[in-house]
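Lecture notes, part 5. Sequence design as translation. It can be helpful to think of inverse folding as translation between two languages: the language of shapes and the language of residues. The source text, in structure tokens, appears below.
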């Protein structure tokens, strides 16, 4: 009988479509692992298609079917996400799950099944009408750990949050808790280029980077386009006039947010104004593809690395090459310390043999040390905000942290993430308060850890290749391997 109901539901939706050959139909069968009599809304997202919201009168272990028409631009593997809330305007996503729909041709009907699971934080978050997930009043619970409602800004004065405030050019920036990956992430597209992951056709997002103010981030694709995204109420919106490079674009913003550095194939390296996209300088010195770049903390210097094993230090004000040095192998990972002085700028380079080269590229004597972080490739690296800890992600799916200095050497402090089944750790970043690490795991998605404790994870549509925390720590963006996909979590 259940199969007959499903068939009749699909037929009714197809008739409503009136035979439009440019649309496909995804039927999402939603149930819950436990009775949810108080759920009043279910939201469905298919790929990058806008979220559709449906009214319900509770959920149970019996399927409820929702039909979503998707345009012809969405073909191939598409992530389908279902979310449940108490009602309209509820800030807490109580339950969530996702599945994959394979859209192979226009006009077809694809069915997917999701079972919603409870979110770990919802018992502590005020929901619709001031009630939490368990029906208690928000006033009965401490609010210090509660994330903000959708689009809300933390207006706590800097003096009320000692140790949790960072000063930017726009004034004090109040740090907040990281997003719960399982319940806050959504999928977006950098472009609408043709995509066929099985034949490696489609854009790979090499890098993602936030401005210091955190209201904008950039995505750099291997098709050469660098796009800016403005975040308003937790939703990224593409800005006009993208930058154009030669391909494999790597990007970094200057600390004051006025400049963007773009490195790409054949050693092309440019500084451009963020405001009007106009060129500031072309920096000549690389002859091969640039693999990474980053500014010093005061914006005076830019450091870049390329596939020819060169690491170059540039003067931003002088638009000139200051120092060129070589590393033994082609860089696989690259990180510039967020802490620098007029005489010191530490840089980390991960290599194929699992070793990490640490150098102070601004010091007059150019001190260099090497330590072995893994028996496999050192795929990613990131400095902690205070510059005293380096996280290294490996081919074997292990993320380790190392403490020390170039002068005294580095000692392993912990295995932060041990997830061989989730694939290589291709991307890493520290939260601004240094308490959390987010890792992009190949063939899985995003993993968030606090110390050695895994806090949450999220299976992205395609493997994440780049990741970045927002300056206030409340958002994460990750670029994916295929189809110009990126994930935004807030």
């Amino acid at each position: 009988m259940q199969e007959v109901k499903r068939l009749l539901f699909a037929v009714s939706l197809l008739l409503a479509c009136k035979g439009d050959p440019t649309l496909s139909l995804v039927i999402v069968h939603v149930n819950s692992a436990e009775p949810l009599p108080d759920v009043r809304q279910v939201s469905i997202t298919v790929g990058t298609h806008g979220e559709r919201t449906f009214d319900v009168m509770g959920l149970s272990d019996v399927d409820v079917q929702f039909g979503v028409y998707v345009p012809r631009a969405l073909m191939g593997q598409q992530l389908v996400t279902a979310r449940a809330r108490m009602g309209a305007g509820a800030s807490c996503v109580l339950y969530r799950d996702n599945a994959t729909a394979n859209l192979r041709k226009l006009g077809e009907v694809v069915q997917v099944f999701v079972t919603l699971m409870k979110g770990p934080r919802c018992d502590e978050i005020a929901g619709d009408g001031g009630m939490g997930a368990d029906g208690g009043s928000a006033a009965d619970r401490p609010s210090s750990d509660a994330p903000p409602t959708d689009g809300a800004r933390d207006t706590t004065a800097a003096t009320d949050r000692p140790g949790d405030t960072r000063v930017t050019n726009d004034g004090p920036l109040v740090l907040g808790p990281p997003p719960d990956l399982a319940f806050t992430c959504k999928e977006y597209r950098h472009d609408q280029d043709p995509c066929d992951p099985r034949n490696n056709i489609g854009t790979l997002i090499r890098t993602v980077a936030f401005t210091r103010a955190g209201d904008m981030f950039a995505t750099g694709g291997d098709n050469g386009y660098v796009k800016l995204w403005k975040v308003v109420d937790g939703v990224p919106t593409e800005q006009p006039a993208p930058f154009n490079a030669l391909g494999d674009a790597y990007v970094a913003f200057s600390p004051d947010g006025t400049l963007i550095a773009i490195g790409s194939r054949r050693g092309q390296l440019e500084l451009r104004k963020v405001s009007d996209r106009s060129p500031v300088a072309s920096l000549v010195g690389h002859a091969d593809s640039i693999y990474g770049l980053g500014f010093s903390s005061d914006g005076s210097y830019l450091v870049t690395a390329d596939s020819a094993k060169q690491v170059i230090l540039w003067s931003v004000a002088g638009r000139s090459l200051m120092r060129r040095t070589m590393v033994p192998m082609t860089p696989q990972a690259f990180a510039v310390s967020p802490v620098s002085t007029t005489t010191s700028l530490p840089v980390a380079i991960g290599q194929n043999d699992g070793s990490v080269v640490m150098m102070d590229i601004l010091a007059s004597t150019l001190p260099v040390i090497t330590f072995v972080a893994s028996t496999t490739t050192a795929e990613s690296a990131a400095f902690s905000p205070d510059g005293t800890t380096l996280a290294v992600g490996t081919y074997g799916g292990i993320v380790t942290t190392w403490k020390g200095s170039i002068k005294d050497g580095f000692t392993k402090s912990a295995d932060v993430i041990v997830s061989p089944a989730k694939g290589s750790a291709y991307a890493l970043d520290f939260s601004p308060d240094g308490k959390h690490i987010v890792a992009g795991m190949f063939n899985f998605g995003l993993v968030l850890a606090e110390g050695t404790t895994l806090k949450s994870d999220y299976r992205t549509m395609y493997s994440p290749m780049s990741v970045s925390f927002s300056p206030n720590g409340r958002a994460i963006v990750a670029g994916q391997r295929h189809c110009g996909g990126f994930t935004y979590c807030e």
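The translated text above is only one of many valid answers, since several sequences can fold into similar shapes. The longest helix spans residues 2-17.
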